Amino acid sequence: MLLCSSLPTQILIAWILGVLGIAPRTPDDQLSLTFVLTLSLADTALLIVLMVVLARAHGDSAWLLWRGHRPAIGEVTVGLLLVPIAVLGVGVLIGTIRELAPWMHNVPENPLESLATGGPGAAALFGVVAIVAGGIREELQRAFLLQRFERHLGGTTVGVVVLSAAFGLGHVVQGWDAVIATGALGAFWAVVYLRRRSSIAPIVSHAGFNSIEVLRVAIGGS
């Protein structure tokens, strides 16, 4: 589970990028889109390989774990229908947090948003990161780790709580209000996966949500 948590793989990839001279920040101290894009895509590819290899080592099929048995078109439809629910839910949650606990909005400007504000090209590339590293990698990862909790670490309820908390804390750079919102999203997509036993709907919903967020930032939304 630690190996597939993204922590060791991203540390390794970041080190390799540093050796190659690809810095995480630009000369004006902004996040580097080249670094983020390369790190995210490389980590996605490496993690998928690791999860497939580890699943096979335990006699499991990663494809079956992720694909499930439901018709794909139905799962895509469900995922699309869940996008507005996720967007609305996060909007209400963030608004409530900022109204009742404004101190939790401790990051006035999300550092990731600068990656989508460098013009249409930059927004498109960051959209690729949001869809591949967010929508695809994180949902495949979530299903893989939930299976481990279900079998060995106290069950799916424990898995949903632990993974959602970790998912939220992984966004602490965006502020404590974002930590709570992303943690809630993680729990939402985890429950969707457990109900349907297919990663297709969570992937579509997550990718759709991220795409809307990138578009909102790119056109100057707050």
Write the layout of secondary structure elements.
Blueprint: H1 7-19, H2 33-57, H3 62-67, H4 72-100, H5 120-152, H6 156-169, H7 176-196, H8 200-218
Helix pairs in contact: 1-2, 2-5, 4-7, 4-8, 5-6, 5-7, 5-8, 6-7, 7-8
Question: Would you kindly provide a brief summary of this structure?
Answer:
This protein has 222 residues and is mainly α. The protein has eight helices and no strands.
Structure description:
The protein is mainly α. It has one domain. It has helices at 7-19, 33-57, 62-67, 72-100, 120-152, 156-169, 176-196, 200-218. The termini are far apart. The model has no long low-confidence stretch (mean pLDDT 91). The radius of gyration is 17 Å and the shape is globular.
Beta-strand segment tally: 0
In the predicted model, the low-confidence regions spanning at least 5 consecutive residues are none
Shape: globular
Q: In sequence order, what are the helices and strands, one letter per element?
A: HHHHHHHH
Termini, distance in Å? Answer: 36 Å
Rounded to an integer in angstroms, the radius of gyration calculated over CA atoms is: 17 Å
- Report the total helices: 8
The biggest beta sheet, please?
A: none
Average the pLDDT over all residues and give the rounded result: 91
Query: What fraction of residues sit in β-strands?
Result: under 5%
How much helix, percentage-wise, in residues?
over 70%
The total tally of domains equals 1
Structural classification: mainly alpha
